[in-house]
């Protein structure tokens, strides 16, 4: 086995933290459906954000940054009035930051040719384009949102969500310019 493949396997190991992230992902779903308290949800975010993710394997970094992006999206959506742009909403900016971290990690996986992580990385990468497009739309950065929708549309799995969300984005853009 080559050194690259050994590193690839090592970087893709499922650990105790991987399982914690999986449980946290389930908590995000419960919170989004109104079946978990905000206090519990936010305290779990803070606990997991306390982990030094740069010291963890790449698989856990991919999962963590993706899950944190989803968590801040869930917090944002609970408070979001979709008729307004949120230029200063901290949840949106944290969501965007975490999704950009996913992009960085995916680029690293590709550059270093860690084959054991390709499928996970590419699946998350395509999903992140859609999430970034929605986040940029929510803060009124419509041009960037449209660029990310175009990239998200390259994955057939995103086609329906891109079409729906891009339509909302065009409506938001029109309403924003009409309001301003």
What is the gist of this entry?
By secondary structure, this protein is mainly alpha-helical.
What this model shows, in words?
The protein is globular. Helix 6 (118-138) packs antiparallel against helix 7 (142-152). The chain contains eight helices and no strands. The protein is mostly helical. Helix content is 76%, strand content 0%.
- DSSP helix fraction: over 70%
Q: C-alpha Rg, in Å?
A: 17 Å
Shape call: globular
The low-confidence parts are 1-6
Tell me the span between the first and last alpha carbons: 61 Å
**DSSP helical segment count:** 8
Q: Output the helix-strand order.
A: HHHHHHHH
Largest sheet: none
SSE class: mainly alpha
User: Please, what is the average pLDDT?
Assistant: 87
% residues in beta strands: under 5%
How many E-type strands?
0
Compile the SSE list and pairings.
Layout: H1 3-11, H2 16-32, H3 38-49, H4 58-79, H5 90-112, H6 118-138, H7 142-152, H8 159-179
């Amino acid at each position: 086995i080559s050194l690259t493949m050994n590193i690839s396997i090592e970087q893709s190991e499922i650990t105790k933290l991987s399982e914690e992230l999986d449980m946290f992902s389930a908590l995000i779903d419960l919170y989004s459906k109104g079946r978990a308290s905000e206090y519990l949800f936010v305290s779990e975010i803070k606990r997991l954000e306390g982990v030094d993710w740069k010291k963890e394997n790449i698989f856990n970094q991919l999962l963590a940054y993706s899950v944190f992006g989803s968590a801040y999206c869930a917090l944002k959506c609970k408070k979001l009035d979709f008729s307004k742009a949120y230029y200063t909403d901290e949840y949106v900016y944290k969501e965007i930051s975490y999704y950009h971290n996913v992009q960085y990690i995916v680029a690293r996986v590709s550059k270093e040719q860690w084959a054991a992580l390709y499928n996970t990385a590419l699946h998350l990468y395509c999903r992140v384009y859609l999430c970034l497009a929605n986040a940029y739309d929510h803060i009124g950065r419509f041009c960037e949102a449209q660029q990310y929708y175009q990239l998200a549309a390259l994955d057939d799995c995103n086609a329906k969500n891109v079409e729906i969300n891009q339509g909302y984005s065009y409506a938001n853009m029109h309403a924003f310019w009409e309001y301003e």
